[in-house]
Design a protein that fits this description.
This is CoA transferase. It holds the Pfam family CoA_transf_3. The structure is a single chain. The chain is α/β, with parallel strands linked by helices and about 375 residues long. It has two domains: about 10-195 and about 330-370, Crotonobetainyl-coa:carnitine coa-transferase, domain 1 (Rossmann fold); about 225-305, formyl-coa transferase, domain 3 (2-Layer Sandwich), CATH 3.30.1540. The protein has 14 helices and twelve strands. The protein has a seven-stranded mixed sheet with strand order 6-5-4-1-2-3-12, with helices on both faces. A hairpin with a 5-residue loop joins strand 7 and strand 8 (about 235-240). The longest helix is centred in the middle third of the chain and has 26 residues, at about 155-180. The radius of gyration is 24 Å and the shape is elongated. It starts with 7 loop residues before the first strand and ends with a strand.
Amino acid sequence: MGPLEGVQVVELAGIGPAPFACMMLAELGAEVLRIDRPGGGVSMGPPELDLVNRGRRSAALDLKQPAAVDVVRRLVAQADVLVEGFRPGVAERLGLGPADCHAISPRLVYGRMTGWGQDGPLAQAAGHDIDYLALSGALHLIGRAGGPPQVPANLLGDFAGGSLYLVIGVLAALNEAQRSGQGQVVDAAIVDGSAHLTTMLLGALAAGSWQQERGTNLLDTGAPFYDVYETGDGKHVAVGALEPQFYAELIDKLGLDAPDRNDPSRWPELRKVLTETFRQRTQAEWTKLFDGSDACVAPVLPLAGDHPHLVARGTFVDHHGVRQAAPAPRFDRTPTSLDRPPARPGEHTREALADWGITDIDGLLESGAAVQD
């Protein structure tokens, strides 16, 4: 099921943003075949808990062997999309670059996921999420006044600036290929996507309504009515009362005679009042007080939290014994759902290759070009 039902994707396994993008394509209904290296790659845990690999089968191929490369070429002949996350030039050296694949299938959408992009002075340099955010300016935005930049795990770079832009690019190229019959290369670079995410703030910077100094602006904890406060039990609540009517409800619920929020010179005083007030009750008490109100106050929950709203929507589910996020977004006519749990590298080599029409599987396994877990 899902709106991409019938779309076939070959994934040349990598780490981080490319697997997450392929996870999304699979959850949207595409059939994604993950090509792992024998033994697998880097993982933050055992294969069955590597959740970004959920939703698709794994075939293990040793791409150092010509026979294995030939298998991928035969898969490409049937596929709508190929996704790879190698450094620039690696796929070409394997004989699986865009020119190689488009010679086999001109309609193929070739998705490339990197940090620095396919060209530019840093294209061949190593890097991680934090580096791409640093160069794009996105990391500079995050943090309190007078303090260092704060690291948002790897959510903002790898997955927001990387995976989601790759998925958008692949979907757009698929749509165009339906009209033209021609595929194309999608060059998704985390540094580009992260920079693109700052578009609204770049406009505000040009207008003079945003300052380069972090922690001094409306949306970066500069404003006391858009910040996080500690509660009496050492937990936190998030306050986002930007609009006047929401702020008025916040102050009313708190029972405060607060300083004028429209006077930035009084913001330190207002912050002190809010800080002292929120420390007077526990997070649970504040959550109950503000439940269903327009004061824009929410408890800061740990990963996989159990808030009633999340429970009602099924935002988190238990799938094959593991707590995880359900697919997003949602569709009313072609609904998505969780399918396969994460596969061990090579778990489905024989069955998946057979389903894709590869006939010489025994010979591939005997030669080591393919490996069945």
